[in-house]
Amino acid sequence: MSTPITLTVGGIDLTYNTGHMGMDHGMLFQERDRQRLRHPHINYYERHFEADVAQCEVCFCRPLGSMVSRLELLGYTLSAVKSEYEREAALDNDRYFGAEFDSEAERPPRLAFEEFVAFIRANAVRDLNDEYDKDYDAEDAQGRGRFANDPSVALLPGGDPDRNMLGYSELSHFGVLVGFLHPYAALRILAEHPANLDLEVVWDYGNFVHAGWAENKDFVAGARRTQTYLIATEGTSDTHILKRSLALLRPDIEDFFRFIDIEDRHPFSGTGNLSKFAEGLVKIDVHNRVVFLFDNDAEGIEAFRSLQRFKFPVNMRAMVLPDLDDLRNVSARGPSGIEEADINGRAAAIECYLDLRLKDRPPPQVTWTNYKESLRTYQGALDFKDSYAKAFYEATPDAVASGAYDVSKLRVVLDSLFVQCSQIAAEMLRPTHDGAAVA
Fold this sequence. Notes:
Blueprint: E1 4-9, E2 12-18, E3 34-36, H1 50-57, E4 58-63, H2 68-73, H3 78-96, H4 113-121, H5 136-141, H6 170-177, H7 183-190, E5 200-204, H8 206-210, E6 229-232, H9 236-249, E7 257-259, H10 271-284, E8 289-294, E9 296-297, H11 298-306, E10 316-320, E11 330-334, E12 337-341, E13 347-348, E14 365-372, E15 377-382, H12 385-394, H13 397-402, H14 408-429
Parallel strand pairs: 6-7, 6-8, 8-10, 11-14
Antiparallel strand pairs: 1-2, 1-5, 3-4, 4-5, 9-13, 11-12, 14-15
Helix pairs in contact: 3-7
C-alpha cells in the first residue's frame, strides 16, 4: 500500500491521497507552522537514522482557531459554508428523490443549516472516541452507539454517493457525517464549536516525501499569488501604516496582502489619481483581487461615491476608512475659530486612526482647508500628522501589546479591510449557473 498524505483536524481525515500529492494545502499555513510531530506510522522502538525520523515527522501544523481568518480570506466564510450546505441538501434531494420514498412529501427534509450548526455544536471532536471497533458499523445499524439514535444524522446530506461511508469509531463516523462538505468548509463549520478551536490541523507530508512520492520543496506555505489582495491606497503613508499594522496586529494573515510598490514614489498618489486608477482597472477587467482604500475625508467620500456609477467585478471593491465614535468630537480650527467637530467623512485620513496621544504635546486638532460644494462640507487635515506617524513607527511590539500605544482604531481599520476581502473571496467561490466557480 502506498504511503498516504493527509490533511487532518483532531484526527479526522479531511483529505487522504496515495501515490500523488492531492490538494495543495499550503495556503492554510505559514512557514512558522512547519514542524515535527510524532508520527503514528513510525515504529520508534526500531532503530532509525535520525535523519529518517526527522523527515518522517515533518508536517505543517496549526490550531484550528488561528486558521479561521485564513479560511475566510480563501472564501470559506460562514455564509459561504451555508450556501454550500444548502446546495448539497438540494442535490441530495435530487439524487434520492423516488429512491426510498414514493413522493416528495414523504421524504423528510434535510436539516436546515441552523440545525446542522447545532449538530456540530453538540459534538466536540475531542469528546469522540477513536478506539478501533471492527463491528462499529454493524452496531450502529442495530441502534447502538453515540450517533445511532440521533435524529439529525439521518437528515444530513449524503454528498457524493460513491464516497466511503464506513466508520470504525465515533471519530471516524463523525468525519464521514461532515465529509459531504469541501474540506475547508468542514474546517470552518467545525470552528463553530468553541471546544474545537484548539484542535490541530495537520498537513502530514513528511512520511510521503520519505517514501519518495514527492520532495520537500513541493510543500510551500503561504497564500498563493492568485489568493492575495492588492490594497491600493491614496499615498505612501497609508501603505506604510497598513503594512506595519498587519505585521504587528495580524501576522496570521499578513501574507494575504500586497501593496503597490512605493520604493521610489507612489505612482497613483492622491485621491483623484487613485479614483482614476480604480476606474481604469474596472474597465480593462483585471483579474487580480483589488481593494481601493480611500481616506475617510471629504475628498475620499467624493471619490468613493463617484466610483459607484461603475459595476465592479467580483474581484474588486472600493471602501472608505471606517467611521469611528472616537472621531466624532475632535478639536477643529476653521473660519469660526476652534470647536469640537465630527471629522468622520471630513478629515479622517489614516493618521487619525493612530494613537493621538503624543507626550508633551497638546490634544490632536484638525484644520479645515477647503469647502466641498458637492458634499456641502469642509475638507480637513490633521495638524502635525507626520508626528503621529513617527510615533507609530517607533512604537515597540511590547508597547502595542501592553496598550501603552493604543492600536484600537487601527484594529477597526484592519477588521473592515478583512471583511471586504473575505467577501470578495466568498463571491469568487460562488458557483455560476453551470456549476463552475466564478474564480
